[in-house]
Amino acid sequence: MTLNNNVIWITGASSGIGKGLALELSKKHNCKLILSSRRKEELEAVKQQCKHPNQVAIVPFDLTHYGNMNTVVEKALKCFGTIDVLINNGGISQRSLIIETSIEVDKKLMEIDYLGTISLSKALLPYFIKKQNGHFVTVTSLMGKFSSPYRSAYCGVKHALHGFFDALRMEHQKDQIKVTMICPGFVNTNVARNALTGDGSQQNSQDEATQNGLTVETFSKKMITAIEREKFEVYIGKKEVLGVYLKRFFPKLLHKFVIKSQVR
């Protein structure tokens, strides 16, 4: 498939991967974009950086307000009259040991990364069923396939997203609805700086692995290719991608490698 002439809705579009996708899609694909995040001013700034701002609409909303997603979907549909692809990219991360992590942090990640994402998708699902076409693209993480210290809550919600969207794909294949799970490794964004620590405060520092990860531009190009190829699941990163296969075939070996890596 091609994304040309599609209406693509991107959450978490004010920075990082979401912003990178918006700029790349605007630059090289003839499509219309709907950009969402909590921050209206930042969304406006991204819109103005796009090649064709007149083909970009913004719909600010907060994923924690997951009881209000029907209204959000109605607003999004009014932008261009239809939606072809929803890219679930909004979310936050976490960096803290389990023993030091307040249950409120686990709850917040579950509300934003999981409940907010599936509530939005469920609100859009009836529209996709009615038109017998649609594509859910959900950005999870390699941490949705295997785990790492200091990321317990993050790993938990990312694993949960795989469970939900794999089921959605099976239930609605008959409705011509597609699901692509995107699993990034390290990408040089502010995800580590914005990650929550054990008490719920932001980490406010970059880590070496994230700093040395793929550029947002490189990642965005690879992700767009995966969407166009209608992949079920794709792993995008550097050597850390090997962890998926080690987990599958040599789980004890992966355990040893992760422990030795001392990744924060």
Structure description:
This protein is α/β, with parallel strands linked by helices and 264 residues long. It has a single domain (7-261), classed as Rossmann fold. It has nine helices and seven strands. The protein has a seven-stranded parallel beta sheet, sandwiched between helices. Helix 8 packs across helix 9 (251-261). 42% of the residues are buried. Belongs to the short-chain dehydrogenases/reductases (SDR) family. InterPro entries: NAD(P)-bd_dom_sf, SDR_fam, SDR_family_member_7. This is SDR family oxidoreductase.
Helix content: 40-55%
Class inferred from helices and paired strands: alpha/beta
Compute the separation of the termini in Å: 38 Å
CATH topology: Rossmann fold
Secondary-structure arrangement, i.e. CATH architecture: 3-Layer(aba) Sandwich
Morphology: globular
Query: By CATH's scheme, which homologous superfamily applies?
Result: NAD(P)-binding Rossmann-like Domain
CATH class: Alpha Beta
Domains, number:
1
Our Rg estimate from Cα atoms comes to: 18 Å
For the largest sheet, list the strands in their spatial order. 3-2-1-4-5-6-7
Oligomer: single chain
Beta content: 5-15%
Order of helices and strands: EHEHEHEHEHEHHEHH
Q: Would you tell me the overall average pLDDT?
A: 95
Give start-end ranges of low-pLDDT stretches. none
Determine the number of helices (DSSP H or I, runs of at least 4 residues).
9
The count of β-strands is 7
Largest β-sheet summary: 7 strands, parallel
Pfam families: adh_short
Protein name: SDR family oxidoreductase
Organism: Mangrovimonas cancribranchiae
InterPro entries: NAD(P)-bd_dom_sf, SDR_fam, SDR_family_member_7
